[in-house]
């Protein structure tokens, strides 16, 4: 048996090694011939899997692992990336109880870190970044409706001039480019009107959200139009939209979907396109019921043909709501 074979055959399950190390001092491991970094790492892992924790059930399940020590080290590298102890234990438990190759486990570890990591909300305030030779940067972080309003007051044609005017000129900025619309569903309106507005979150077409109570305080009309959405029928036609009432139809469309209707897309309605659910080229009409907010990109990839075999799916109106139909859900 050469040294390589001896090493591979001698590799005992990592958990057995940790169990034997638990309770020992670093000096004892050094005397046994361990390097100082190895000794520290083994004792650290032993403390995790055998020491006190609030998550004893997950710890006990993870101890049944037959993985090699190198695999437990890999798992710990990913567990350490999670800020919550509970998430770290969910990751350890799942990976320790899976009987897969180290490479497969590492792939799953990467997925788990993505799933379990909670993005820390950025702290609110105004930050200045000073650079020796490059331009400086002022960053404003705050409630979405405030920042959306500040941003709307800036003239996109000459943003720096208009910011300077707002800060020092004493006057208000230029008027927002598009009127922001506030969306309330009929059943939510009941709550706002009856004073239970804190239970309701309304979304504005500039992409920001505020509670119904805040909205009532700010007075509905300050925010522009109010459009009613029926929970089953979709937009309620308040404006008797005729063939040519396209601006109002657009308002109703963005009221229904304040952001791109494609799942996961945050593109705000104010700069999105009016998408025909039944394609214009296939006889679809320009009516609120046939319109959906869609960013230019998703309008481009939306499949006009409901039977297309190779596609990214399409938007449809089902039971009053605009939903994304995946390509594999063809009738
Ligand atoms: Zn989109």
UniProtKB/TrEMBL annotation:
Key words, A-Z: Endonuclease, Hydrolase, Nuclease
Family matches, as CDD domains: HNHc
SMART domains xrefs: HNHc
Domain HNH nuclease: 247-300
GO molecular function terms attached to this record: endonuclease activity; nucleic acid binding; zinc ion binding
Keyword Acyltransferase part of the UniProt annotation: no
Protein name in the entry: HNH endonuclease
Native source organism of the sequence: Corynebacterium flavescens
């Amino acid at each position: 048996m050469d040294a390589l074979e001896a090493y591979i055959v001698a590799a005992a399950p990592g958990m057995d090694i940790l169990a034997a190390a638990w309770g020992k001092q670093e000096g004892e491991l050094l005397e046994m011939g361990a390097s100082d970094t190895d000794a520290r790492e083994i004792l650290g892992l032993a403390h995790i899997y055998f020491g006190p924790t609030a998550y004893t059930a997950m710890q006990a399940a993870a101890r049944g692992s037959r993985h090699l020590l190198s695999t437990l080290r890999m798992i710990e590298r990913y567990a350490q990336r999670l800020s919550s102890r509970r998430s770290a234990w969910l990751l350890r438990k799942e990976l320790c109880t899976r009987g897969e190759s180290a490479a497969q486990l590492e792939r799953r570890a990467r997925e788990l870190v993505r799933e379990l990591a909670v993005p820390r909300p950025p702290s609110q305030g105004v930050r200045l970044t000073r650079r020796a030779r490059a331009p400086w940067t002022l960053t404003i972080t705050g409630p979405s409706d405030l920042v959306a309003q500040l941003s709307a007051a800036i003239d996109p044609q000459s943003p720096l001039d208009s910011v300077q005017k707002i800060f020092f000129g004493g006057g208000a900025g230029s008027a927002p480019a598009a009127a922001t619309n506030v969306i309330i569903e009929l059943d939510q309106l009941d709550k706002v009107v009856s004073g239970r507005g804190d239970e309701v979150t309304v979304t504005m077409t500039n992409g920001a959200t505020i509670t119904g109570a805040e909205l009532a305080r700010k007075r509905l009309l300050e925010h522009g139009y109010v459009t009613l959405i029926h929970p089953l029928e979709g937009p309620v036609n308040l404006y008797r939209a005729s063939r040519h009432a396209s601006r109002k139809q657009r308002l109703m469309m963005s009221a229904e979907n304040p952001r791109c209707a494609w799942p996961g897309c945050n593109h705000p309605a104010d700069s999105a396109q009016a998408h025909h659910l039944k394609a214009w080229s296939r006889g679809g009409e320009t009516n609120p019921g046939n319109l959906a907010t869609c960013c230019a990109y998703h309008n481009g990839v939306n499949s006009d043909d409901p039977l297309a075999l190779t596609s990214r799916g399409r938007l449809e109106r089902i039971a009053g709501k605009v939903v994304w139909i995946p390509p594999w859900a063809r009738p």
